[in-house]
Amino acid sequence: MAWRALRRVGPVLAPRCPRLPRLPLPPREPAARRLGTSSLLLAARKFTDKHEWISVENGIGTVGISNFAQEALGDVVYCSLPEVGTKLSKHDEFGALESVKAASELYSPLSGEVTEINAALADNPGLVNKSCYKDGWLIKMTVANPAELDELMTEDAYEKYIKSIED
Amino acid sequence: MLRAGCRAALPRRPPGSEGLKQTPLDALHRARGGRMVPFAGWTLPLHYGQGHLQSHLHTRRHCSLFDVSHMLQTLVYGRDRVRFMESLVVGDIAELKPGQGTLTLLTNERGGIMDDLIVTNTSEDHLYVVSNAACADKDLAILRDRAAQLQATGSDVHLEVSDNALLALQGPSMARVLQAGLSDDLAKLSFMNSITTTVFGVPGCRVTRCGYTGEDGVEISVPAARAVELAEQLLGVPDVWLAGLAARDSLRLEAGLCLYGNDIDETVTPAEAGLMWTLGKRRRVAMDFPGAAVIMAQVKEKPRRRRVGLTSVGPAIRPHMAILGPEGRPVGTVTSGCPSPCLGKNIAMGYVEAAHSRAGTELTVEVRKKQHPAVITKMPFVPTQYYMAK
């Protein structure tokens, strides 16, 4: 049990995130092979090409932005987030993050309904920079169509994607 | 110093691999964590390790060093240099005392603003002109064409583009930091005045008490070969942090200063832009500057639109957003905007129809398809700290 849990937790610790330590982990299997489309118990973090991530646990997806995105954006000073109950389709714009220099729109990684927004961000928007994968989460949402998860990038694929656009 | 006009035709710096020009401090920026971006044909630091917000706040509380070497520095020599300058700008240049400078505007025949620039009457035999990097080619063409015209009729005027680096040291600690490297008494140097002197052992530096942050600050024009040495001396003081383009923009907006290309451009007159104070008293009467008839007519009839400041809370107001009046009808457009690090609310500049331009007027701004209230606010948004000698 614990071994399996560790495997699944593995991709959650992104190597680029400055705060989290690198734990020695067993070699990972590609996430797609471990997950059936019906397995929403604890899914590996997946990424969109617009630099959002989503991690699904017990049918609820937690959404945030990647370390690459928070670095590019700069110090976040304001978060525009949707109301609880908002129904989103995959790719829908659901809000924006404001840094001093620019605003960046946020796009929904999946279709579903917003169940919670991160209230801590109202007083502490900098959490998005300091802890983009943990305390700086943006919204939680239901997963209306689990098959959409398969269309997103694994962490490895996302790392390759970032390298390709950085050049 | 060479007097050859042809030197101005050469690129001022060898281009980097992307064809961008590098300032003399390029390696220093990179070594100190500068995130380099292209700007007006140059590669410049956007910010450093501490990030934009901390850099901005540090400037207001202590002191920051900006590399502004990308700006165009031109020296104007010759007996007819004042007449030459006044034929292109709106200010009273002849009245400038030795060492005194002024912000002024290059205008065109339609009364539009070609650039905003600082002209200083040096105590040496030339005018010292600093203008925007984004307008460098345009400005040089205007200056050179007029110089050629005047030379053809026997006037004595020569231009030289300076190769110096330009370092801006801005913030309340500036005077203490800089005084340690100067034999001149900074207490005697007022805002908009300029001296040539030795700074931290580097001779031949022009120190002008001016800047783009609203703080007490100086811009130091330093020979390129010794620019890194001077920068490192200044950075050796723990109070001094490097700052980049990001902080430069948020600081100037808090200070209510225009950015050419955003808040002022060729489609805007000094009357609409609220910059009539740059027009010299004598010049208004003489009407001897480009576009005088258009501009003075607008002053008489009142301009139909006016540049204003706005404040709001919630999502930030950004350039190109529509400003709506009481009936929800568009009455203007935003030209600059950002969250203000000092005020904790949003600030912006834009143009609105004159009828809706009074301070305190409540309007709305369209931000990503939603309307948010905004209030017309007097500028500067953050009080300025310009220094006047007693």
Automatic annotation (TrEMBL), chain B:
Ranges for domain GCVT N-terminal: 27-280
Gene Ontology biological-process annotations: glycine decarboxylation via glycine cleavage system
Catalytic reaction(s) noted: N(6)-[(R)-S(8)-aminomethyldihydrolipoyl]-L-lysyl-[protein] + (6S)-5,6,7,8-tetrahydrofolate = N(6)-[(R)-dihydrolipoyl]-L-lysyl-[protein] + (6R)-5,10-methylene-5,6,7,8-tetrahydrofolate + NH4(+)
Species of the source: Taeniopygia guttata
Protein EC: 2.1.2.10
InterPro entries from the UniProt entry: GcvT, GcvT/YgfZ/DmdA, GcvT/YgfZ_C, GcvT_C, GCVT_N, TrmE/GcvT-like
Region forming the signal peptide: none
Main location: mitochondrion
Official protein name in the record: Aminomethyltransferase
Keyword Transcription applies: no
Binding-site list for substrate: E219
NCBIfam families assigned: gcvT, PRK00389.1
UniProt similarity note: Belongs to the GcvT family.
Domain (Aminomethyltransferase C-terminal) ranges: 305-382
GO CC field: glycine cleavage complex; mitochondrion; nucleoplasm
